[in-house]
Protein 1
Amino acid sequence: MISLEGFLQTLIAGLLLGGLYALIGIGMTLIMGVMKIINLAHGELMMVAMYIAFWMFELFKIDPYISVFIAVPVMFFLGIALQKFLINPVLKVDSILPENQVILTVGIGMVLANLATIFFKSDYRSTPVNYATSAWYLSDYWKSTPLDLSLSVPWTVSFLFAVFITVSLWFFLSKTDMGKSIRATAQDLDAALIMGVNVKLMRIVTFGIGAGLVGAAGCLFIPIYYLYPSLGGQFTLIAFVITILGGLGSTVGAIIGGLILGVFESMTATYIGMGWAPVGRFVIFVAALIFLPGGVASLLRKQRFGK
Amino acid sequence: MSLIEVINVSKHFGGLAAIRDVSFEIKTGEILGLIGPNGAGKTTLFNVVNGFYSPTKGEVSFKGKRISNLQPHEICKLGIARTFQVVKPLQRMSVLDNVVASAFLRAKNKSDAVQIASETLNFTGLYDDKNVISKGLPLGKRKKLEIARALATKPEVLLLDESFAGLNHSELNDSIEIIKKIKERGITIMIIEHHMKVIMAISDRIVVINYGEKIAEGTSQEIRNNPLVIEAYLGETKSA
Amino acid sequence: MKKYLPLIILAILSVLPLIGLSSYMMHILILVIMWSAIGMAWNLLGGYCGQVSFGHAAYFGVGAYTSGILYYKLGISPWWGMPLSVVVVTLFSLLLGYIVLRLRGPFFALATLAMGEVMRVTFENVGGLTGGTLGILIQKRTWVSKFGYYYIILFVAAGTFFLIKKLIESKLGYYFVAIREDQDAAESLGINTTLYKTIALCLSGALTGIAGAFYTNYMGYIDPHVVFALHDISIVTIMIVMVGGVATYWGPLVGAIIMVFLAELIRSIPGLGAAHQTLFGILLIVIIIFLPNGIVGDFNKIKRVFKRETPRNELN
């Protein structure tokens, strides 16, 4: 029996989750769109950020939401370092297999995940903040509500943070010079070069931003999720699904893709069962690759041209 | 006798019409030139004839039969071969192997393919370079390799996309000789080119495209004096 | 001399067990030979045809479970799985290929990765047929000594080697490489790229599947987590070929020797064992940056590094 209340609650949970997912996806879609780089270590970068947030909380009692301001710069510079010292050299190398760059990121991911296991052990970690189980109830504000819906505090705060970051990113990309240069590089590398955009710098910065975004996502996730060294893989997959679903390089697409995925997972968890989430993700992924390779963004574009 | 007929072909990408209602025919044994300013849609037209794109409207027929719904490899098997504007050598293979790979289409076995390939290399003057890895070839020879590869499929029609671009004077003359020899063998040729002198000299007829539409068709004399054509090229140097 | 190298190596490998090796050494050699077979199979699709598969575990696992399910559900000797897996895995490859071969480059790679994982999760959840996460255990091993297993896998690997060599030198080989170098150009030259990519995938899959079926018989126990493993099967396969040399005949064997011995070395040093993924990851990164065509492929590069260290006679 599907109750309206249950359905709405599941929908809300899905949207909140989707907002966070979108943040993970935007980082990847930027990297794939601007640099045409497939980063199979994306989830591991998030894992690194989560460990930063964890240890900040564990050692210094710093709230994960504050850690965002610590982790993001750290991840930004880590991203830049990876791009400059590992990824760029590989792009220059001539080899039979063009997929070298993908394999490189697999190697990076392996190293990061394994190092985390060695240093931090595979135990499940969490940051038990005192508001972890608090929630805002609709019935507290509207006494005679027909449906009692609730918003979990950490979920909602994380979601709002994610929205704020996404909006800031949007401003950065559309209003600032550097943001426009990045978008130019994504659209047409050669044209950007000719226009005097420092393409090399843009690519490095973009990887940094992508890493920073997924780092922020990590800090926003740790209040509501468990942390362990090998959790990177599933988040890399999530990032890919969102990127393909939304359309390569499209931030709007990533947002819509994230929300779709979040709602989908929430619905399957409630009405079908928890174990099927990973399979569902893979199936959406392959289906999107085959049937909608341009993602939601291509549908939006078609709308605009009226064809 | 028309070998290939392009009938009211249009090709749209999203909302953009790259080619709009273009019709012409390629007559057996002739060299048909296709000219037009950059971005006019010439290569797109080749891609439609060759099977890489299917036309949004209209159709292409070869010897009376419709081919616009076929895959590029099927079209090649029927006898239409093409070269690419940005040359696509099979980089890590030697010159000989490049042509052997395409010769397999008509060859009965490997030694037959090698035979066909060797003859073709001889014909195009590349035989001495047969063991050079094609990645290391200078542009002029790479363009010749494109042609050799296409020839090894024993086509009836050859679509050449800017085979003369970037060549120096002696390479140009060389290539023109090869084209003439190809025509002598009875192969019909359609050629996209920007080199006005070359196109005017070797083409039997010329079709002119601008903004995706055919604006003129005729002999090189007629085209040279056509006001529409001159206007389309206004601002571009007439001598090449 | 070079022409007879394959036969010489085969002769050496055939005679090796007879000189009296420990069971442990035999196990290592069997692993090396099995991995070189898998590597060669992957190389056919990836190195020669240019379609980089990140999900070869799918074929390995289906082959392994062909043997496993024959035993578990039908009570038939799992050895029958080896010939049967050729049919089963080929059919499976046709289906998989139909889905993924329409994608190009990195998207193909990602889709194959996804499919490998889908297979793993599926086999974990269809317990009735496959034994689920508990896996399948073969109660009685066929032989105690490793001799039989060794010669069987040697036969498979040698067969794979010679088959691939023959193929690459034939029309198929030219077509595969043409597709790798430039798929559009290949199409224009009359090559039915979809057909030939499918052939490459099915051959590659079937050869990998046989190794999987062998694995079930040799190890005596399989479960989805092991035989459909992303890191321990799919990625290791890629590493073997990349380290040894993509698109070379000997690359996979060289790579298998290095990787298996390296893994054993790491395992034997106390404390280092936990870091094996880190070391593998670093090895992968180093190879990608400095020796992208592997040891065999970039052999000239390696020679040059050593030559520079000896003084050269400038006057000659």
Protein 2
Amino acid sequence: MALSSDLIATARQLANVHQRRPRQADLRRSISTSYYALFHGLAELTAGRLVGSTGASQKSAAWMRVHRNLNHLTAKKACSRPELQGCSQGLAQFLAAFPRLQELRHQADYDPAARFKQGEALSAADDAERGLAGLQAAPRDEQLDFITLALGMTRS
Amino acid sequence: MTAFTYERDLDHPVSAEVEQTIRDVLKELLSSQGLEGVLVNPGLDHDGDPVLFVHLKFRLVKPGIDPEILSQSTISVSRALWKMGERRFPHLRYDFHDDQRILGTENW
């Protein structure tokens, strides 16, 4: 998950550009980047589980299609599905972080009246990191259950 | 009312029981991290889905806030709400002191 990990590092750097008086622009970009770390991490895991995680798989059209098929709204709604209640602590970390950071990202990107503090941006980056680690550590059957729901496959 | 809640969102009230549960869970978890106030407002998220906006006010804490404890707060509140049949996602917004440090993030 190279891109998602790098995005978390970028989010932290942005939050710390000006230690004493952080600029709102930096904090907003930091929060937005933390959300996208989660989103790309989920997309990478989804494509990896459904198509494959080898170098050759990642270059295939199928891997790219699955990666690009992830939708923000559908993935957010999957986080609140009743089937996932009682899941492992790892997956629970992701299910808590994803909707939270998605909403924060919308405020950061679109609400001109919103104000952010450095601590909030840093905690968002931490949430993204913990959420991704939790998703990766979740049992494989839980991962598959979640990623199929996140792709909108709700019929069974 | 917080800055991110609008009048149109007030059609979905929060019961006193739900609000008290949120306060109890957060107080138990975050009192040691400087939590000094909780404000719960019903609202709609950016997609128009009903949610709960929870504004958490913190005092300055030294040497800093433990992010691991912080990260448990949404999970703990969500689990408590599901047990009582409340399905709206709790969006926790942290209002830290301007000079608040988050432990473990000093080297970035």
Protein 3
Amino acid sequence: MNPVINQSHISGKLFEFIEILRDANITISADEVIALFNAVTEIELEEKNIFRQTLKTTLVKDYTDIPVFDRCFDEYFSSRQRFFDGMDSDDLINFTDRVSNNVVNEIDSQLEKFIDSLDPAILLEKSAEEIMQMFLDDLPESDSSGGGEGMGIFRSRGGATGSYYSRSESGETDQKNMDEILAIIKNMINLKITRRNIGKTLKNREDFLLNKFIYQLTPQEIKEMREIVNRFGQKLKSRISLRKKRVKHGGIDIKRTFRTNLQYGGVPFKLFYKTKKIDRPQLVVMVDVSRSVNQYSRFMLLLTYSLQSLFSKVRTFAFISNMVEITDLFREMDPERAINSMFTDINFTYGWGSNYGRCFDQFIENHSDALTRKTSVLILGDARNNDNDPGLDSFQKIHDKTRNVFWLNPDKKHLWDWNDSLASLYGYYCKEMKEVNNFLDLSGFIDKLFIDTK
Amino acid sequence: MFTSVEEAIKELEKVKYIASKEIATTVYLALKLEKPVLVEGPAGVGKTELAKCIASALNIDLIRMQCYEGLDESKALYEWEYAKQLLYTQILKDKLSEIMGSEETLKGSIEKLTSSEDVFFSEKFLIPRPILQSITNNRRSVLLIDEIDKSDSEFEAFLLEVLSDFQVTIPELGTFKTDVKPFVFLTSNSAREMSDALKRRCLHLYIDYPTLELEEKIVSLKVPDSGPRMTRQIVETVQRIRKLQLKKEPSISETLDWTKALVLLGYQDLDPAIAMETLNFILKYEKDIKLAISQSKEVFLN
């Protein structure tokens, strides 16, 4: 292959790969693309690690995106050898004996062109078989415009005169070869389609998990979620801290300015400003950990703790029918383990089911020192009190002593106040009672907390 | 200048820095493309060390700037030497009045003054700070901007001019430009996220904890007195400890400290009892030490 074609072939691949990364929600600007193309000319592309690092170092600027990049890279650049998937090895050896690599390459590049010409939407909708059919139907035309010699195989597809490779005259072998070639083409199409859509697939999966009702998550998905929650938390954190940084300068610090400028005879050459204290909200989190809302509490706790450094103080309480402080537990262990050990170590239950009233009473009695005018209280629970005393007095006290009270309710809105739910009774004292279904709701809420509390 | 990725690895090894292929590739490209590098990763994996070693491998100056909250242009770029300016006006008072003396009107004297005021805002009264130094010294140098995440976002914004055009504008004097661009390394522990504009101008390098083989190589290069046997034992143990749920994982620098200490104490072999006694070299929290000891069966195998 002459170098010019080779170049354009490579840049085509790179552009396609960049597209995939963009699909997966990695931001890549023109600057990065230019850097990549400058870099590619400086290195030898043969070695995979160097190639990978070149792409990584020029394109991916956020280290939380690295796992996503790695996955896309592996999928995209290592899929070639899997053209032969689903054929047993004897066949394969036979096959490669008879057919030169050229044919495979030929088909490959023809396919590439064909798929390029298709509307991307079709790739998502149709199955590999359908696309193969379209590809084969398309062939005669492209042939007349001077398609590759390898395509001769298909000129009389279905017939037994497969021309190009059939040095043996036996029709039976031809048929077998035909089948094999078709199988390979199918594999190729499959791979090409998945490859083009890796980015989208990853992104879709993430969106799907973040949007899924938390109580519907399977254990497998919860495991998957952990990584996403982590990444998400980090992004949220840096976004919020960036926002916080913006308001920094206060007025002139007279004392310091005078003191320093004494050396210039009191002429204020250098000015000093008071640095405004960054206003970090204090947070009291109370989560209902009874079975009905358990799964929500878990994510809530995970999220609050990945964001802990943004708050000046976080105190966490869990309750079913007893209110227990679990702040220390999280200080000692990573949240995942803390949550798991929480249930084995601590006795939340007294009697049966959640008892909000009793818990609020206990809170006022034992922990009211946690409440100040700077505190935001975050309650997560379904407000289903099992017909116990609502403890409104205590709840009102919580409201009076703090800046604001937010309530996150996993119940659907139309179920609030139904049966034993006291949603609007408590809701009256809250700044907001909000329905949360999925992880996005949760994180969106925390994000908002930082804007509202200004 | 390195001529290939392999050579970069070799040259860095000569100055006792073991670079993985990833690191070497980024370094090589950064030098070739003359782009700054933003290095991120956990504390103690040798981010700062990398910049230092590149400077000594290429045998050029290292100009280092440590960032902190409140760092501003006057500390990073340049500062007018107010005291000196004041002093000179005092000393030159007579000379000044001599010049001014002939002028009758206020307007005339001000015009005269402005015509010569440039004297006081010339390079004589300028203290160049690290960034200006790296641009004006006309030799290639490595500019290390350490822990950029500790600085304020205003400072970061002002770095942009330097990083993209390698020029610095001083209002009184004009724009300083350089033909010999410095190699810029920015390190960050990601205490906060850098702005997109800054990231766009840099290559990005994430250095993680090294693999077993790499760490072994590093230790045996830096602490040759520890025999291959103990080195292996130490590195394996540290790698296992990193897998525990710790508050702070031991970094390479801690592995090195530990090895040095064990060598100094005269051990040739890391047996579990010694390891547990000296754990405080690699673990900095009481809780972590306790945890490691409670898991001793899995951690200390030799």
Protein 4
Amino acid sequence: MGLESSLSEGYLTTKVDSLVNWARSNAAWPMPMGLACCAIEMMAFAGPRYDAARFGSEVMRFSPRQSDVMIVAGWCTYKMSHAIRRIWDQMPDPKWCIAMGACASTGGMHRCYGVVQGVDNFIPVDAYISGCPPRPDAVLHALMKIQDKIKTEHSVALDS
Amino acid sequence: MSLELSEPLQKAVDGLSESFGDKILDVYQSTDTTFVLVERESIVEVSKYLKNEHHYTYLADVFGIDRYTSEERFEVVYNLISLRDGVRLFLKVRCEEEQPEVDSVTSVWSSANWAEREVYDMFGIRFNNHPDLRRILMPEDFDYFPLRKEFPLLGIPGSIELPNSTPDTE
């Protein structure tokens, strides 16, 4: 049954990197940084209909210390940017960031003095999602992109 | 001047011109609302009178306007509502570009406190005798007044600090 049946000799060989990346990529816990209407779509992404649990990302951790992926959902003011950066700095490495929607990616329609024109001005963004707001499946797509990225990383072996 | 005022508004306007005379500079209507332009120095007196004698107990909003004219550039508008009569009245005062100052009406309506702070934050109009005249939306060390016409839409680059994005290298 189960694992034993697929392992003919009762063991498998792999690289530690692959194993760790496989585990990491399927347990990317999001840090929901819901700032505006995109946060509602982010809830749908975590809910049963779109079911982020299929990708191991169903646990929204409201503590930055337990999370791996920050989803910045919504427009960010200059004042808020300091709070986001502080939370980002508290997340343990390795960590990834998704800029969800037009506002988080570029400032979107909030082309004005109070709104940061894209959160990549102060935190490194791994995946951008277009849309205003994006559909939940677009968030899933971004999550899959992050998973692809995690799978190609060196986790254990040192770069020489 | 042909005004079509409802009865409570007519009473208030008549009472104002009786009590204050030439301190009331203009009364006009636009899009079904009534505006009363008041001399700047007498705004507190007029406010007290309207609140006590005509039951305008609710100051819904205070906002500024940058008219971008060479004289009397800024305007402060007070949005008054009488809950008893169900009518709305706008009071207006104008002030100059150099040192724009208006007396605060917080002693009459305490709801003016934050509203006047917002006008100060956005236009730089100072309110005399305000209990706590600080910026309410923009950062406290911000040097500009963003709703003035000469302020660029996207702000002035570098005027608001972004967080340090490489804290490890400090």
